[in-house]
Amino acid sequence: MAKIAFLFPGQGAQYVGMGLELAREFPEVARRFEQMNELVGFDLRKLCWEGPEEELKKTANQQPAILALSVACLELLLQEGIRPDVTAGLSLGEYSALVAAGVLTFEEAVPLVRRRGTYMQEAVPLGTGGMAALLGLTAEQVDELCARAARETGRHVEGANYNCPGQVVVAGHTEALERCMALAVEAGGRAVRLSVTAPFHSRLLTPAGERLAEALAAVPLREAQVPVVSNVTADYVTQPGEIRRLLIEQVSRPVLWEASIRRMIADGVDTFVEVGPSRTLTGFLRKIDKGVRALHVEDPGSLARVLDSLGRVC
């Protein structure tokens, strides 16, 4: 028997047209997008399927949109009897993982992540912070470069997403971020500025976490039916109180994604299914451990391939 983890993508996985083919083939997916519209109070479905891309990319729009498609794909897998032994999600994706684990309902999660996106965007003035992917360096090297850039500029930058070997995303004030990118190139790595407008998962987002705490206090979280691996600790979490605390911390703490995957592998997970738009997490998996089975579902074709594959390993 395979031990299966469902993985859910985070911000940046969105694209115009996502979910359209799936909704045409499966009425239940179309209904989820209709429900998403009702929950956010405007035609977010049209943004998903027709754009414009710049509007879809806005943090408060892409977060509920990605969650909606992720949950729709999840439900199609569950209908076929494919269930996870453990779940995890990258940043925003942790909310989809919590829906999969029964901690949140879809109806609770959509408005919650829309608020989360708004709070994260408003925590730092536009133009004063950002993020960059540093490639070809170790996590230890990146941490050293962040500390040096902070000293030299008097501003803040830190590791934000420890995704896989050779890729760490850093976040911080623009001046420190740019200096860190330059230092990374000098050290023999590469630096790619990300198309985001805030330094997510850095201590600069602490005000967003404080606002999110109020929203989370109003939501009745439930005990997880399957373990969820927390971004903050790279460890399992099941209890509502701890889940709530870690979701608040997650906004301003680094995402320990590589460590999360390695924890699951060490505990016997041999099959990972990325559930939702794009294939970013599948790419990370192949860099972390080429020996695990990495699958992905976001459209009718990929769903059929996943069901065929899992039918042979479950």
List the helices and strands and how they pair.
Elements: E1 4-8, H1 20-25, H2 27-40, H3 44-50, H4 53-56, H5 59-79, E2 86-89, H6 93-100, H7 106-122, E3 129-135, H8 139-153, E4 157-164, E5 167-173, H9 174-186, E6 190-193, H10 206-217, E7 228-229, E8 236-237, H11 240-250, H12 257-266, E9 271-275, H13 280-288, E10 293-297, H14 300-313
Parallel strand pairs: 1-2, 1-9, 2-7, 9-10
Antiparallel strand pairs: 3-5, 3-6, 4-5, 7-8
Helix pairs in contact: 2-5, 2-7, 5-6, 5-7, 7-10, 8-9, 10-11
Structure description:
The structure is a single chain. The longest helix has 21 residues, at about 60-80. The chain is globular and about 55 Å long. A hairpin with a 6-residue loop joins strand 7 and strand 8 (about 235). Helix 2 (about 25-40) packs antiparallel against helix 5. With about 325 residues, the chain is α/β, with parallel strands linked by helices. The protein starts with a strand and ends with a helix. The chain has helices spanning about 20-25, 25-40, 45-50, 55, 60-80, 95-100, 105-120, 140-155, 175-185, 205-215, 240-250, 255-265, 280-290, 300-314, and strands at about 5-10, 85-90, 130-135, 155-165, 165-175, 190-195, 230, 235, 270-275, 295. About 50% of the residues lie in helices and about 15% in strands. Strands 8-7-2-1-9-10 form a 6-stranded mixed β-sheet, sandwiched between helices. A 4-stranded antiparallel β-sheet has the order 4-5-3-6. It is built from 14 helices and 10 strands. One of its GO terms (molecular function) is [acyl-carrier-protein] S-malonyltransferase activity. This is Malonyl CoA-acyl carrier protein transacylase. Its EC number is 2.3.1.39.
